[in-house]
Specification:
Blueprint: E1 2-8, E2 11-16, H1 22-28, E3 35-40, E4 43-48
Antiparallel strand pairs: 1-2, 3-4
Length: 50
């Protein structure tokens, strides 16, 4: 999802959000964790922060 974060003067700042299935997040242990996101070729990879 593309979401407007804030507007400062004439500049609009945008954030991007993704929705993940609840069961996948709970099973993976990502709930309430910080994550790192990276692009590998054509895939977006989400990893728990160490």
């Amino acid at each position: 999802m593309k979401v407007i974060d804030k507007k400062v003067g004439d500049t609009t700042y945008i954030k991007y959000r993704i929705n993940l299935p609840k069961q996948i997040v709970e099973d993976s242990g990502l709930k309430d964790k910080e994550v790192n996101v990276k692009l590998e070729g054509k895939k977006i990879v989400i990893e728990k922060e160490k």
